[in-house]
Every structure is written in C-alpha cells, then in structure tokens.
Amino acid sequence: MLRVTRISENIAIIAVMHRLLVVFVFLLVACQTLVHQPSTPSSPVVGTHTPAVLQPSSTPSFIPIPERNTPISPPLTAASGQPIADTFTVNFHPDGALYVGDLISLEVIPLAESSLEDRSVRVQVDGPDGVILPEGEFAPYGIGGRFQATMLWVWDTSGLEAGEHSLTVSIVPDGPTWTETLSLLPQEGVPLPEPGSRWAQEESECCLVYYITGTPAERDLEWLLEMLEEQVDKANRLLEVELEQPIIVTFLPRVMGHGGFAGDEISVAYLDRNYAGSSEEIILHHEFVHALDSDLGGELRPTMLVEGLAVYLTGGHFKPEPLMSRAAALLPPVEGCVEPSDGVRISGDINSGVEICGLDWYLPLTLLVDDFYFSQHEIGYLQAGALVEFMVDTWGWDAFSDFYRDIHPQAESPEDSQLEGGTQALAIDTALWDHFGLTLQELEGSFLEALEGESLTPVLAEDVRLSVTFYEAVRRYQELLDSSAYFMTAWLPNGDQMRERGIVADYLRRPLETENLVLETMLAAAEVNLRAGDYKRMEELLIAINAVLDAFSSSDADPFASHPIGSDYFHLVEAILAAGYQPEEIRLEKNKARVRVSTSGLELLELNFYRERVGWVLMHQAGN
Ligand SMILES: [Zn+2]
Q1: How far is the CA of 296 from the centre of ligand 1 (A)?
Q2: How do the residues of the chain divide into helix, strand and coil, expressed in percent and rounded to 5?
Q3: 220 CA distance to ligand 1 centroid (A)?
Q4: How far is the CA of 30 from the centre of ligand 1 (A)?
Q5: pLDDT tens-digit map of 479-510
Q6: Is the pLDDT of residue 30 over 70?
Q7: How far is the CA of 423 from the centre of ligand 1 (A)?
Q8: Which of 153-167, 469-483, 592-606 is the least confident region?
Q9: Residue 290 C-alpha to ligand 1 middle, in angstroms?
C-alpha cells in the first residue's frame, strides 16, 4: 500500500492547469477501479450436445457470431422448481487460435437470469475417461458483475496432441451437459513474439513497471519511463503528496476497456493499433490521481467524485478540454437554437450570437451518483469532472478537499429527505450540508445555472456529440468482436499470478482476423479526426463503422460491403496483408492511403497505397 506525506500548498497550479487546456494527446477514457480479479477454481460429469467448433479462418471469410449451446431438452428445473436458463455461452482464453501448451481458461456464462448460486461447472476433457478440470463456481464477474463461472487457467494443454479436443461441460448437479469442440494448433505455431516473450520489469523513481518482452512497450521503454515520472510528478504536485513507494504500472500489449484500469496495480494499454484512441499520458495521470487519492483517506469517496476528481486534475477526460463549457453541451436545447452541425457551418465562432442547441444528454445527479459506472460512460465522466471544477471554483480547493475527505455512509435517511438511506447520494447530501449548508439538489441547481451561463460553441457541442458516439462505437465493436476487452467484463487476470507463472498469452493474443484489423484501423482513424477537429470526416467514418457493425450483428455475409468507406478499408487491409505487413494505422484520402504498418518485428514502416483499377497497390515506402 502507498504511504503518502503532505509537502506544500499550491492551488495556483490547479486553476491555471485546467483553464489553459494543457496540450496532451488524447486519452482514454477512463478507467475503472477493479472490483473482481479472477481466482483459480476447483472439479466434474456428463450429458451431451455438440455446438460450435473454434478455428481461425485462413480465407478472408467472416466468422459469423456463433450460435452456441442450443438447449437440450427437457429444460432443467432448480431444486426450488424455478426454471433454469437453458442456454450458456463459453468464452475461452487466450483469445484467437489455441495452441498445444496453452493454459486455457473458460468463462461459462448463462445467457439469461437464472438461479445458479448452488450450482457449479464441471468439465471433462476428451470423453468419459478424460481428465476432469477443477470445478468452477458461479459468481459475479467484472465491473458489470456478470454472473458466470470463471475457470482461470484450468486446462493445461502441454503434452496434448494437436488437433480437435472435446470438452464435456456439465452444470452440476442437474445439468445441462453439452460438448464444446476446440482445435489445438501445434505448439511451434504460436504467434510472435511468443514463445520467446517473457514478463520483464523496470524500476524507476516513481514506479515499478511490468511489461512483456517483444512488445511496443519494450521498444519504447525509455520514453515510457520518462513519461511516467512526468505524470506522477504532476499528480503529486496537484494532490500535494509525495510518493514513498513505487506505483505498480503494467503495460498491456492490447486494448482493455477504454485503455486503463486501476486496482492493485495500474494497467494501461500500450500498442501500435490502439483503436480506443487512448494516449498514455492522460490515462496514467488519471490513474495516478486515483492511486494517490485512494491513499489520502476519506471514509466514503463516492465513485462520481473519485472519477470527477481524476478528470478535473487531469485537465480533461478524452483530451485536454474545458470541462464546464463542454458539460454545457449536455443541456436541453433552448427555443430558437441552431443545431451544432449547422452552427459549425454557419459561424464556427463564439461571438456570432447564435444560440447553439444543447444535446439534451444531461444526467440528473441523484441518478448518476448511485449508478455511475452503469450510466452513459463519457457523459458521466464529463459531468463529474465539471462538477468538481464548479465546486473548486465556488469554494476553493481546500474547502472542496475537506468536504471530499469527510463524506460518510448514511444508513438512515432523515425524515425530510427524498434520498434513500445507504446511498452515495445521501452521503454526499449530508456532507454538503455540513460543509456548505446546501443540499445535493441545491448544489445541482447552482451547477445547472452555471452551465447555462457557459457560452456553448458549435465546435464544443460537436466535439461532445462525436466523442460520445465514438466511444459507443468502440464498446459496440468490443462486445461484438473483441469481447475480452469490453470494460464491464474485461479479461484481466491477476497480475502477480500471471508474472509468477510466466503467463503472457492472455494479453499477447487478441482477435486478429481481417475484420478486427479493418474495424480497429477505422476506429483509430476516426479518433485521429476527432482530435484534429475534423468532425465531418470523423462522422463519415463513424457512420461507416456502425453500418459494418450493424451488418455483423445481423450476420450479414459481406458486412464490409454495407458502406463504401468500410469496403475501401477492407480491400486496403487485404492489400496490406497480401504485401506481408500488419496494418497499424490507415489514413485514407480519396485514391491514396498513407499507412503505418509493422512487419514481424516491432519496426514500424510508413507506406503509400494508391487505388488503381485492379485495387489498392503498394506504390512505395513513404520517404523513399
Ligand atoms: Zn478513473
């Protein structure tokens, strides 16, 4: 646990910081404080049903979203006689193709609400005489609290034959039972940087850094260590603390959630094709604020204020941004206002006197406070950051800090209060009264008044609208085609255990089908347009991305044909793969595409492709 001592006072830095819009590259979005780490489970059964086969496709055909585990009849009844959900889905880890030697994990997930508390999962490998894996118990998993059996690294495949293997999965004691068939590829076929890659660590003044060798984090380690120092210094200064123990930071070679998680350690995505558009600086600063904040005490630190404080002190959520004036975009439209997109076309500047329409996305605080992580993500964080800014501007940093560290659970609700006992809303309301003599409702009233006083520009309104739309698309992509990364149920095994056991595959392997490469480069390009303020181009890309995701959701045979930009990116990615490269970034400009690619190693190359009648053709390496 971090030990912290107070060094000195400097409010000034804070005020200047967020008003000046510090020029950070964008980021991500925000972290979640982890609620559950998968633990290793424990034993067995039978009954039969043969659903899907898991195999990577060699030809660029699309793997339809699998229908699994059609229920066997008769449907089950629990001891209580209550019907049990009759379909389960099973996720396997690591992602993608599986190889002999892999330590395989299972997530057995009932697709419908069901009473499975007193049931568990038994898995037998390769028929009735095969080994029975440690049994899995059902329990809530991840931030979303998805009810599932998480069977971490239960199947050690070292020494097994390559080829098909069957797993008989039984819900015990009374079923159902069905069989999953998996293909294990030969061990020697594991993708680079395996089998050589290992966990490695580096200690710096502020941090103990873990990364996997053979990944971009190793390539850019020097820069990362420097950047970490810088961000910790900033967070230290803002919270007036001095670290006494290194903060543990793990760089992940794949996107997880929106890019960062804070739990026992800070996990941050660092890779060349980061489709969540996160930049490490802001994520790490955000996470460091959490790490330092969690050590500065406070009996109850409400989630909304914890996240609001991190967004406020980081100077933005997505990128360096004015919080209050952006939050003003969430208000309902006023009579005679002009749509932001029209506003951008008409005037684009603040003094045109044109009243820009708000998006009507504002979330009432009493709802947001007690349902923070389940509320619309970007809106919740923006509102929380703006509220902290408003409170600091109104009462000053010291008064805000004293209030924030003096919030306590309130089991009973006073007679005259609308707020429920035991809620964070009531706890905040009580502390507000004690410190500032006002209720949460009154605070919200003055907050809304201040937001109405902000001058909303069309550019800001468009930026908020498209930022929210972008992240909705990122999460939609994850749920459909990169489910281990979806923040509510991200696959984040315990870091210590992974390092102790030398397990790297759970982070190194990620879906790398053509559709993943296409959609990820489209998302990354959209985010670059957002940061550049090129809203028109960005919206075109978002429309294309959602058209393709719609097509995938409806198991369309040719999803990329659903939109011309989608089709362009698809054919471009095919051309890049055919030329022997992995696409990391694609900038498409009519008949020309500037592409950043990686080869088998970590080296990145800039290439130019041109659209010819025959399709996309590699012209030459950029700069040659
Ligand atoms: Zn956070």
Answers
A1: 16
A2: 40, 20, 40
A3: 25
A4: 5
A5: 999 999 999 999 999 999 999 999 999 999 99
A6: no
A7: 20
A8: 592-606
A9: 7
pLDDT of residue 38: 40
Write the single-letter amino acid at 416. Answer: D
Output the DSSP codes for 75-135: PPB-TTSPBPP--EEEEEESSSSEETT-EEEEEEEESS----TT-EEEEEESSTTSPBPPP
User: What spacing in Å lies between the alpha carbon of 388 and ligand 1's midpoint?
Assistant: 14
Closest CA to 276 of 544, 485, 568: 485
Ligand 1 mean position to 273 CA, how many Å?
22
What residue type is 177 in one-letter code? T
Report CA(286)–ligand 1 centroid distance (Å): 6
CA of 299 from ligand 1 middle (Å) equals 19
Q: Return the pLDDT at 56.
A: 35
**How many residues can be counted in the chain?**
624
Spans of all domains in the chain: 84-189, 513-623
Separation of 232 CA from ligand 1 center, angstroms? 15
Q: What pLDDT is attached to residue 621?
A: 57
Instruction: Compute the distance from residue 287 Cα to the ligand 1 centre, in Å.
Output: 6
Residue 33 C-alpha to ligand 1 middle, in angstroms? 7
Q: Quick: pLDDT tens for 245-296.
A: 899 999 999 999 999 888 789 999 999 999 998 789 999 999 999 999 998 9
> What's the CA-to-centroid distance between 477 and ligand 1, angstroms?
22
CA 605 to ligand 1 centroid distance, Å: 34
CA of 304 to the centre of ligand 1 (A): 9
Collect all residues with Cβ–Cβ distance below 8 Å to 574 and sequence separation of at least 6: 60, 514, 616
For residue 372, the CA-to-ligand 1 centroid distance in Å is 11
Q: pLDDT band for position 600 (50/70/90)?
A: confident
| Nearby residues for ligand 1 (ion, Cβ within 5 Å) | 30-31, 307, 310
Distance 63 CA to ligand 1 centre (A): 35
Residue 606's SS3 state is strand
Please answer whether residues 304 and 413 qualify as being in contact, where contact means their C-beta atoms are separated by less than 8 angstroms.
no
Count of beta carbons in the 10 Å neighbourhood of residue 293 = 23
Question: How far does residue 144's CA lie from ligand 1's centre (Å)?
Answer: 16
CA of 288 to the centre of ligand 1 (A): 9
pLDDT for the residue 14: 38
Cα of 307 vs centre of ligand 1, distance in Å, is 5
- Record the tokens describing residue 20, joined without a space: 């000046």
CA distance 581 to 596: 9
For ligand 1, the distance from its centroid to the CA atom of residue 284, given in whole angstroms, is 10
Q: How confident is the model at residue 370 (pLDDT cuts 50, 70, 90)?
A: very high
- CA 153, distance to chain mean position in Å, is 23
Sign of dihedral through CA atoms 389, 390, 393, 396?
Answer: negative
Instruction: For residue 81, name the pLDDT band (cuts at 50, 70, 90).
Output: low
Rounded CA-CA distance 401/425 in Å is 18
Instruction: List, in order, residues 6 or more apart from 158 with CB less than 8 Å away.
Output: 100, 101, 187
Nearest CA-CA partner of 280 in 300, 259, 306, 264: 259
Please give the C-alpha separations between residue 412 and each of 117, 418, 420, 423, 428, in angstroms, as whole numbers.
Answer: 30, 12, 8, 9, 13
d(CA 518, CA 512): 10
Q: Which CATH superfamily is domain 84-189 in?
A: Macroglobulin (MG2) domain (2.60.40.1930)
Q: What does the block give as tokens for 223?
A: 């820069």
Tokens for 514? Answer: 């053509």
